[in-house]
Amino acid sequence: MDRETTAEIERELDEGGIAAGVEDSPGMKITVARDELVAKLGVVSRAVSSRGTVQVLSGILLSAESGVLSLAATDMELSLRTTLAAQVEGDGAVVVPGRLLVDLARLLPASEVTIEYRPDEGIAHVVCGTAGYRLNTYSAEDFPRLPPVDAQLHAIGRVALLETISRVARSASRDESRPVLTGILVRFEAGKLVMVATDSYRLSVKETELDATAPELEAIIPARALQELSRLSPTAGAGSDTVELGVHENHVVFGTGDAWLTTRRIDGQFPNYRQLLPETFEVELAIARVELADVVRRVSVMAQRNSPLRLRFAEGELTVSAQTQDVGEAKESLPVSYTGEEFVIGFNADFLRDGVDSIVGDDVQVKLINPLRPAILVDPTGDFTYLIMPIRLAG
Amino acid sequence: MRAVGTILHADLDAFFASVEQRDDPRLRGRPVLVGGWVVMAASYEAKAYGIRTPMSSALARRLCPEAVVVEPRISAYTEASRAVFDVFEDTTPLVEGLSIDEAFLDVRGLERLSGSPAQIAIRLRRDVRERVGLPITVGVARTKFLAKVASGVAKPDGLLVVPTERELAFLHPLPVERLWGVGPVTAAKLHGRGIATVGQVAQLDRTTLEFLLGRASGRHLHALAHNRDPRPVEVGRRRRSIGSQRALGRSPRSPDAIEAVLIGLVDRVSRRLRGAGRIARTVVLRLRFGDFSRATRSQTLPQATAETAVLLVAARRLLTSALPLIERRGLTLVGVAFANLEDDAAVQLALPFAHASCHFLDAALDEVCERYGANAVTRAVLLGSDQSPAVPLLPD
């Protein structure tokens, strides 16, 4: 375990969270419906750490108290918590290997599952019908205390929040060497929610009108956490029109009805995106979105191994082509309202496809300066902008 | 076809035996056999007794009773080979390794940067001798085949440049055995028809040769005898990097001084990278310490680049992370290599927030260096320091 992680765990231990006070008691014994257990394990299992540097983080914390079983998992960046109704015969808490529990729960034969943990032997017994398992466990005391969720919460329109995430998330970077870019800049301002993401090759900005008043917030939130929220919310939060949001100094809490997601905020300065968006263009034209998307998709088949897509703009026509050495080439044209001198601009096929797919209206507004400057795709409504850096083509 | 021969065939002479002679002065000048039951390699002194490889050690000893037989040390050969390939890759990014001791190099486009192919070949031989301590023979020609023939003729420890206009005059008097693909069986067939030289093969028409030797073989020899070999030098998957290094001597240096050396290396190697029309995704920092131990640190970038500024940021980061190690053990050599090379035919441009994009600055500086020499423009931090490429005592 590296020093930073240790320090982090200790700090969170000091803060004291919801798991505070949970200690190994004489024995935990609960009985739950199998299907519900499987569903709830599915909710928290995404936060189970896969890195294995801190063993207890590969587990799911089960804690039983007054008729409720709570489940929690965290990888120290993201945590997920949920509860389910249980027949509790003994209070207590234990950390069970996450992957293992998820896998075996799916296969259990009967509709009711009993989980019993006796601290003296350190073993969790899972019994379902005539099937029985004995699982080695980790101590609940070693599980990090998760941030509290009782801070002041704001209700945010669920659809607005999720739609905003889905439009920008693809542009976030997966390169850990620049942590700021693995996050999404989230800002609430005067009745609007704004999210920005960039991996330095493309940049997405989405502005969404909000009905209710929003909290004051400008934070860089890991894109991964927001994507987990999207995954979680349509099912877990079904029926609820809002997502609860709590903002803290170092983390943010989202509540979807019956699950809580907390995520660390990323420190650092997000690039000044307004400065990066050009204001004047040489070429502006509207292209039918579905047609463009189809052409790009078909031609992309031949843009393998980072080969660029070539977009040739000529009088009234756009020709998209791609060529991969030793594989072959593709070419397709579509009519566009372009007039002027012919020119060619190159793009990464995935980046262009992501951009066109992020547009919602009938037309994509395409704005270009020259083959070496950023290009912009804009939604007809004007509330979504996708900037894409070209590929410099030889010759 | 190219008008000027830019293909080098570089072949280490009696490779294993030469490494043994390099490492043990008592073996120098003496017939040396490497191997156990079978002779894997023989020094030129041993070959003079008619020893060939492979040959049983017993027979070899009968031919040359005073030969010294040494056990093979594969790890030493591997290391020597790697060092030689580093020299190859410092010479040009277009290196096609054929085996542990042999490669094709294409030096086209390096004229302004490194000189004529002949000059490059001379320097390559000198670099291998100085950096690795081994003799190497180089053939230079317009085709791979002819370059290989030339090195075969020039062996040992030689250099042969075949001028474009002298290709056939050089090729035709050679015995047919020099043709690629002519082994004892084919040679016997040709000799049976009174054909002894390449020139005689060239006089036969293709159908006659195909009839004589079979279709594929006949066509192949026909093309070679007319010096038709369109195969380009293909960069193998083995290793693709371009780099340079500098020995620092034993006196301790401050982190600032080490960084200045690093900057000089990155400047120079990135210029070579651009000169070769390539971009790199991985930056490798190589270090050698006072106790001769080594360390390698590398970082892979999200997108390939040839921009000095981007490569320098990565190299600096690697150096900074290695500073505690350097402090403890003392640095005697620092090297920078760029790996994961791609053609610069298509370069993904990035938004300029991580650094100011230096594409145009690089191009302008390259132009100045090309026109007025590598020292015409330099960084303030490098002023007054000796940035001439130094030859390290030991290869990296």
Structure description:
Chain A has 395 residues and is α+β, with helices and mostly antiparallel strands. Chain A starts with a helix and ends with a strand. Chain A is elongated and about 80 Å long. In chain A, 22% of the residues lie in helices and 40% in strands. By secondary structure, chain B is of the alpha+beta class. Chain B folds into three domains: 1-164, Alpha-Beta Plaits; 172-225, 5' to 3' exonuclease, C-terminal subdomain (DNA polymerase, domain 1); 241-392, DNA polymerase, Y-family, little finger domain (Dna Ligase, domain 1). Helix content of chain B is 42%, strand content 22%. Chain B has helices at residues 15-23, 44-47, 57-63, 74-91, 111-114, 117-132, 144-154, 167-171, 184-192, 198-203, 206-213, 215-225, 255-275, 308-329, 359-372; strands at residues 7-12, 32-35, 38-42, 55-56, 68-70, 95-99, 102-106, 136-141, 159-161, 241-247, 278-289, 294-305, 331-343, 346-348. In chain B, the strands form three sheets. Chain B has a five-stranded mixed beta sheet. A four-stranded mixed beta sheet of chain B has the order 4-3-2-5. In chain B, strands 10-13-11-12 form a four-stranded antiparallel beta sheet. The longest helix of chain B has 22 residues, at 308-329. Chain B is globular, with a radius of gyration of 24 Å. Mean pLDDT of chain B is 84; it is low at 387-396.
Could you give a quick summary of the protein structure above?
Chain A is of the alpha+beta class and 395 residues long. Chain A has helices spanning 3-15, 34-44, 98-107, 158-168, 223-236, 273-276, 289-300, 349-358; strands spanning 28-33, 59-65, 68-74, 78-85, 87-90, 92-97, 112-118, 123-128, 131-136, 154-157, 183-189, 192-198, 202-209, 217-222, 242-247, 251-255, 259-264, 283-288, 308-314, 317-324, 328-335, 343-348, 363-368, 375-378, 384-388, 391-393. In chain A, the strands form four sheets. Chain A has an eight-stranded antiparallel beta sheet with strand order 6-2-3-4-17-16-15-10. Chain A has an eight-stranded antiparallel beta sheet with strand order 14-11-12-13-25-24-23-18. A five-stranded antiparallel beta sheet of chain A has the order 5-1-7-8-9.
